[in-house]
Amino acid sequence: MTSPPPGQIIDGKAVAERLRGRLAARIATLPFRPGLRVVRVGDDPASGVYVRNKDRAAAAAGFDSATIQLPAETREADLLTLIEALNLDPAVDGILVQLPLPPQIRPDMVIAAIDPAKDVDGFHAVNAGRLATRQPGLVPCTPKGVMHLLREAGAKLAGARAVVLGRSMIVGRPMAQLLLDADCTVTIAHSRTRDLAAECRRAEILVAAVGRPEMVRGDWIGDGAVVIDVGINRTPQGRLVGDVAFAEAAVRAAAITPVPGGVGPMTIACLLENTLEAALRRRGAVT
Ligand SMILES: Nc1nc(=O)c2c([nH]1)NC[C@@H]1CN(c3ccc(C(=O)N[C@@H](CCC(=O)O)C(=O)O)cc3)C=[N+]21
Ligand SMILES: [Mg+2]
């Protein structure tokens, strides 16, 4: 049903590099540098690599990018004041507040405070609503990156059975909507799904986003499926593994993303793509 040759490993790092190259070429033609501000409160280790990789990629592509580091004990009101200043700053096109936040700060309040036009994570209810109603808006980076990878892998989407494992606001739900918009027949499976393995086995396209190391075993994969592994889990030994047992799954899949080097680099490239999109829209150069 799907077109890629058996066992193809989808090179997310290479796809992300090409996307960043296209963004850089476009930015080089602009009379301004799209501005991105990443706000980090405390030093959650899950955010560390991401912030470093993002800073490097943004600068290389010609963005005006900076990380604003705040102490772990920052009060919610002070973070909201900073966001308001970034909302009003005409040089800032994109605002990303790193999650998770320390316990004294309510993430919903923070996300709601970001100007939807600058919400490059696509987490604001206005952008979620636009996606749900098929209006143009900022789309969450990871699901957007997954769609790029599926297209690069040559996956046939129209009419295909797609299973999304996980129902988070950040990945599962927007992922399901993008697949639906691409004419897949979409199932959202989750921790309460009766027979997860059986649901997954029916999938021609399987997107795993549960955050449980190697939960998806080889015998959950249908022959010739395209498998996208969104999970980035660190083992006690310090190794990175996905939500899919890669070696087992690769034997049965037509194509599969590795961890690292799969979805992760695409999330960063799509954050930059969203920042450029936000800049073009805000500054009246709609494309
Ligand atoms: N508001 C917000 N938006 C986010 O998008 C967000 C966030 N908060 N908080 C943290 C998570 C995590 N995240 C990653 C993105 C890329 C890699 C990535 O590029 N990973 C490399 C490996 C990096 C390594 O070696 O550890 C890869 O998968 O190949 C990792 C993690 C975005 N996040
Ligand atoms: Mg769950």
Automatic annotation (TrEMBL):
Keyword list, A-Z: Amino-acid biosynthesis, Histidine biosynthesis, Hydrolase, Methionine biosynthesis, Multifunctional enzyme, NADP, One-carbon metabolism, Oxidoreductase, Purine biosynthesis
Q: Which GO terms describe its biological process?
A: L-histidine biosynthetic process; methionine biosynthetic process; purine nucleotide biosynthetic process; tetrahydrofolate interconversion
Which pathway does UniProt place it in? One-carbon metabolism; tetrahydrofolate interconversion
Q: Which PROSITE patterns match?
A: THF_DHG_CYH_1, THF_DHG_CYH_2
Q: Which GO terms describe its molecular function?
A: methenyltetrahydrofolate cyclohydrolase activity; methylenetetrahydrofolate dehydrogenase (NADP+) activity
Domain Tetrahydrofolate dehydrogenase/cyclohydrolase NAD(P)-binding spans what residues? 140-281
Question: Can the keyword Protein biosynthesis be found in this entry's annotation?
Answer: no
Check the record and name the HAMAP family matching this protein: THF_DHG_CYH
Recorded family membership: Belongs to the tetrahydrofolate dehydrogenase/cyclohydrolase family.
Q: How does it assemble?
A: Homodimer.
> What is the name of the protein in this document?
Bifunctional protein FolD
What is the species of this protein?
Roseicella aerolata
Lineage in the entry?
Bacteria, Pseudomonadati, Pseudomonadota, Alphaproteobacteria, Acetobacterales
